[in-house]
Amino acid sequence: MAKRSSLSIRIVEGKNLPAKDITGSSDPYCIVKVDNEPIIRTATVWKTLCPFWGEEYQVHLPPAFHAVAFYVMDEDALSRDDVIGKVCLTRDTLAAHPKGFSGWTHLMEVDPDEEVQGEIHLRLEVLPGARARRLRCSVLEARDLAPKDRNGASDPFVRVRYKGRTQETSIVKKSCYPRWNETFEFELEEGAAEALCVEAWDWDLVSRNDFLGKVVIDVQRLWAAQQEEGWFRLQPDQSKSRRREEGNLGSLQLEVRLRDETVLPSSCYQPLVQLLCQEVKLGVQGPGQLIPLIEETTSTECRQDVATNLLKLFLGQGLAKDFLDLLFQLELSRTSEANTLFRSNSLASKSMESFLKVAGMRYLHSVLGPIINKVFEEKKYVELDPSKVEVKDVGCSGLHRPQTEAEVLEQSAQTLRAHLGALLSALCRSVRACPAVVRATFRQLFRRVRERFPGAQHENVPFIAVTSFLCLRFFSPAIMSPKLFHLRERHADARTSRTLLLLAKAVQNVGNMDTPASRAKEAWMEPLQPTVRQGVAQLKDFITKLVDIEEKDELDLQRTLSLQAPPVKEGPLFIHRTKGKGPLMSSSFKKLYFSLTTEALSFAKTPSSKKSALIKLANIRAAEKVEEKSFGSSHVMQVIYTDDAGRPQTAYLQCKCVNELNQWLSALRKVSINNTGLLGSYHPGIFRGDKWSCCHQREKTGRGCDKTRSRVTLQEWNDPLDHDLEAQLIYRHLLSVEAMLWEKHRELSGGAEASTVPASPGEAPEDSLARLLRVLRDLREAHSSSPASSPTLEPNCLLELQT
């Protein structure tokens, strides 16, 4: 069993930010840090004081994290980015909001005395003495201290204070991972209430020393324990914090939810998984069926989460198509009007949205990627609405005269027709590229809808059912917000956003089969009608081919694809050729194309190169960041592995931004999480000359000076399925609606006041629900007897014992 924590983060928007540029505006973006470790960077929104981001992330973390902070920054091209302000949410704050922290919160000024990080390793002892007892404080080492100097490091020393006496360690130059091994002693009077204060400072020659954090030790508690040793988390100096006014730095709208889960062994979840799978396999509708009951008892606000968890569970069991087919039947059974089919946010609609993202995202990228890239690169002014045309934005034509409104409209229509035509052509060529499980699901959807609405007047309904998901809920949202679907790294500017919106509207019209109702909404879209009508015919032909592929062909293709290990992540990175031995030069890093599969991390000159090198996945021991001072960049990671002879090796890889760095680290950690021999510590610096740049150790193979972060990962659409976690999340939801399930059980039992689940199931239709209630009871008991479920006491300062 394991304790797992995750943060669901949605950075919505900001308002009333201060102007940082001479133009009276700012170029804001957000950096998200967990315990001072940058894990997320949003896109920059240019020239605004009220930015909208709308970006969502899920971060998996060790349960011991302390706080998550959101820094709003102003991007500058020629100088260091300005810090506008921050919002900090502690773990305790998030734990106090089980449904999540949501709303506007004021940005606060960033105080250097509060920007502390890292831990210090202390050994504390109470020793007997001739006259009085003595307090011995051994300052051993520190790790992950804040870099205060321009070289990306600090010159730390420690100041120990007790009862008016102060003693200091030596200064360790250029290190955020110093080792002192120095001991100090103080006379200790019995009953003395004064605390021992250990402060870390960055020494500066010409300016005042910078505060790095402190630890306050309760001497009374230490007197009782006699000895204590461990890693203590450095805390800010609240006494020096200046009082700041709220509101003058603007506000940030956030949605943040902390979820802690104790995941039991797989065997504990088998009864729940088997029961749900049995229901899906039977596919029989009735008053006691579980899937309709789950939908009925699921509120709108958590329906997407439940749909995603169920979908992943059944996808892992090979029953995704059967699960979705059951939902299709449920939706069709309660739909009388064909034009309202799959238009609500039902469990079927939400599950299909999740299904397409999990199973079809790579397909979406292959079809949409080139078109989206072209729109971004061209940056053409496009507008079809006469009331919004701005001729001045277009510039001059080849005759050096301003274009007329009619010319702008015609040129815009031509651009959109070209983009729409290219998209539809790419879609029509992609029948075989569409994942087999997606094709099979669409085929089943098409058949079910045709059976429900068989008349000639409903000829287009089966096609619209498919396009309602493929176009309206998948392709169109991706066109409007390519950043949120990982098609682009940055949000579009205002001009490109308008082009994308108009293109998405055209795709929606095609997906609606060009109905009169859709045309009547925006008459100014009429110039696209010839392309839309042609697109309808193309789309119907595409869907016909998509759903007509024989089952045998599907199985053959599935077998072919299962023999190939699809890339978990791929793309260009820069590898350091001298492995940290030589000086930093522009030629030290070489650009190569990397591909990570479930077998190996391989790299070559180009994606199509036949000659490539690789690191076997089973040989990876850690994937971690490299401190900035090592290569003059904060976007370098290291992959620590063993070669075929068992010798330790390190590959240094440079990424272009913090997001790419964390995405690669996350992917590498996920695929190697079950490797034997994973490291618990590592060196964040490099071994150059005769010592490590981080902690100045001279032993190359010595114990690392920082702890590895193998459990810090970002959730992605292509993550490996975690069956036990999905089952636990489903159990957690069912537990939250257990009262309603009991009520339904009593109703199906004829109004009997049943308070306990029958010991053995009979043949009544409500037996599925009775078995479910019994499974919930057993899981609740398993959790209550699980050691990981009992509350853990975290001391105020002691973070982790030395091993």
From TrEMBL:
CDD domains in alphabetical order: C2A_Rasal1_RasA4, C2B_RasA1_RasA4, PH_CAPRI, RasGAP_RASA4
Domain C2 residue range list: 1-105, 116-232
Grouped into one coarse class, the protein's main location is membrane
Q: Topology with regard to the membrane?
A: Peripheral membrane protein
Annotated Ras-GAP domain ranges read 302-512
Q: Does the keyword Protease apply?
A: no
Q: Name one GO molecular function term.
A: GTPase activator activity
Key words of the record: Calcium, Cell membrane, Cytoplasm, GTPase activation, Membrane, Metal-binding, Repeat, Zinc, Zinc-finger
- From the Swiss-Prot or TrEMBL record, give the protein name: RAS p21 protein activator 4
List the source organism: Cebus imitator
Q: What is the lineage of its organism?
A: Eukaryota, Metazoa, Chordata, Craniata, Vertebrata
